[in-house]
């Protein structure tokens, strides 16, 4: 494929996960074919391409964790695994004819707004192009975060992050350290515990874990969903409605989550008989304050004789010896970090320079803010999919992505209506008013009840949406031009030539 050399497109989409592919589909359906999808890897899939660790699966039911415009009647399980989700995204790419728009190996080095030309200069590792509009769909779970542990550089064994799993490393008989107890760790631990020689879990904070209501979807169900679309829609609608009913407890009435807390505690008691281990695994915060996890085999795995739980974070590495914050020492052959991602300090923000000559990271140094989760002030014609305060604590992010795609489509329509060379820049007052509303609503949510989570940045929750997916769909239905400044090319004074005779007449 030829390199990119000063190509100009109407829209440049960054990333080919759910957000980027969804944007590409909506652009084509809106009749826009002058666009590219810039992907740093060699295949589509985003987080479902990168995360291939043992046991990797989604914790949202498959029929809800898929595009409404691309239903899949053949999901094999209620909660499908990484392999099936990635295959689904490949099918979406082919079904909607997206491959001609894909540019693989085209990691974005920088994005710079050209005020005079009213377009973006997009520098990639394959060359430079310009775009009228940039849609950033890099996602918050794309760049792994490994803590700065003293002595880690001198560890003689294998070290990798859960999202960069080394499949060439043989686990059998090895002493493995799992650092972290998030959504990836609770899937990895039971998936590898039977194979390894010894497994040590470094737990800084225990998670709340509920049963995973998973099962195989029968052939009859799949046949019905394929032949009678209404059954598929009914299933999806039921899954969505149940989660919408739960929103109030998370966003307005956290005390109502006490019943769910008791169910989680009972789930633990059924698998963990040792009261000492139960005490170590019992959280001291309201359920929902941190992400609720789903698993049927995590607790049983922790009770195995060759599995140890260290109730403290990893603080130091001395050769092959890992030292926890409580002083516990453990010798291991490999360290697996399940320590999350750069969510509130997304790397792409350091590469985007706006109209004022400052980067998005500089503008967001006090915390991320964007109008309706999409537009940052000072960054004209730049839209973010899964931007600030668009995350969820209990439902499918695909619903939020589709709402933002509605906003993107109307944004482009508004540019067409305005006509000519034009750009929209979110007004600082509109961004401020929107985010003040978000933070006011956030005050009574379960996420602000006192726990330390990756949802927070500088003490503010800049990642989650404090309402239902239906509400978010309403606030992103249309672009309100009153919330934007309309930019057009600066008028250039016409050059006037004055003759000698005219000059003479003018002097009389």
From TrEMBL:
Pfam entry (one): FMO-like
Matching InterPro entries: FAD-bind_Monooxygenase_sf, FAD/NAD-bd_sf, Flavin_mOase-like
Domain of life: Bacteria
UniProt keyword list: FAD, Flavoprotein, Oxidoreductase
PANTHER family the record matches: FAD_NAD(P)-BINDING DOMAIN-CONTAINING PROTEIN-RELATED (PTHR42877:SF4), L-ORNITHINE N(5)-MONOOXYGENASE-RELATED (PTHR42877)
Family stated for the protein in its record: Belongs to the FAD-binding monooxygenase family.
Full protein name: NAD(P)/FAD-dependent oxidoreductase
Origin species: Streptomyces coffeae
Species lineage: Bacteria, Bacillati, Actinomycetota, Actinomycetes, Kitasatosporales
């Amino acid at each position: 494929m030829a390199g990119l050399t000063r190509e100009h497109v109407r829209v440049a989409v960054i990333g080919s996960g759910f957000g980027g592919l969804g944007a590409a589909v909506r652009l084509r359906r809106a009749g826009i074919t002058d666009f590219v999808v810039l992907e740093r890897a060699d295949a589509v899939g985003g987080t479902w391409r990168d995360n291939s660790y043992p046991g990797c699966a989604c914790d949202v039911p498959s029929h809800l964790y898929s595009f409404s415009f691309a239903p899949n009647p053949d999901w094999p399980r209620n909660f499908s695994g990484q392999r099936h989700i990635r295959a689904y995204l490949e099918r979406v790419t082919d079904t909607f004819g997206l491959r001609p728009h894909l540019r693989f190996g085209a990691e974005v080095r920088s994005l710079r707004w050209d005020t005079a030309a009213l377009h973006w200069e997009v520098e990639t590792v394959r060359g430079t192009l310009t775009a009228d509009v940039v849609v950033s769909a890099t996602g918050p779970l794309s760049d792994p975060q490994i803590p700065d542990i003293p002595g880690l550089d001198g560890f003689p064994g294998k070290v990798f992050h859960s999202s960069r799993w080394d499949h060439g490393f043989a686990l059998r008989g090895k002493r493995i350290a799992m650092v972290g107890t998030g959504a990836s760790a609770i899937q990895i631990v039971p998936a590898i515990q039977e194979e390894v020689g010894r497994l040590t879990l470094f737990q800084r904070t225990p998670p709340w874990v509920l049963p995973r209501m998973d099962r195989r979807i029968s052939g009859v169900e799949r046949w019905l969903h394929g032949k009678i679309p209404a059954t598929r829609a009914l299933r999806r609608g039921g899954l969505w409605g149940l989660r919408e009913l739960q929103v109030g407890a998370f966003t307005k009435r956290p005390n109502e989550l006490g019943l769910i807390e008791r169910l989680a505690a009972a789930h633990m008691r059924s698998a963990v008989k040792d009261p000492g281990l139960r005490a170590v695994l019992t959280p001291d915060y309201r359920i929902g304050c941190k992400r609720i996890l789903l698993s049927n085999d995590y607790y049983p795995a922790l009770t195995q004789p060759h599995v140890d739980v260290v109730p403290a974070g990893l603080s130091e590495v001395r050769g092959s010896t890992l030292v926890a914050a409580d002083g516990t020492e453990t010798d291991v052959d490999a360290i697996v970090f399940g320590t999350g991602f750069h969510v509130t300090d997304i790397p792409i923000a350091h590469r985007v320079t706006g109209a004022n000559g400052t980067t998005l990271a500089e503008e967001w140094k006090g915390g991320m803010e964007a109008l309706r989760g999409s537009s940052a002030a000072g960054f004209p014609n730049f839209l973010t999919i899964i931007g600030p305060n668009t995350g969820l604590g209990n439902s499918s992010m695909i619903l939020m992505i589709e709402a933002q795609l509605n906003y993107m489509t109307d944004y482009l329509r508004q540019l067409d209506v305005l006509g000519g060379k034009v750009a929209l820049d979110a007004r600082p007052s509109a961004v401020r008013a929107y985010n003040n509303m978000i933070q006011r609503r956030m005050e009574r949510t379960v996420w602000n009840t006192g726990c330390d989570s990756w949802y927070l940045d500088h003490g503010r929750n800049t990642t989650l949406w404090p309402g239902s997916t239906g509400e978010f769909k309403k606030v992103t239905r249309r672009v309100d031009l009153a919330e934007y400044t309309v930019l057009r090319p600066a008028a250039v004074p016409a050059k006037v030539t004055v003759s000698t005779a005219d000059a003479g007449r003018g002097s009389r």
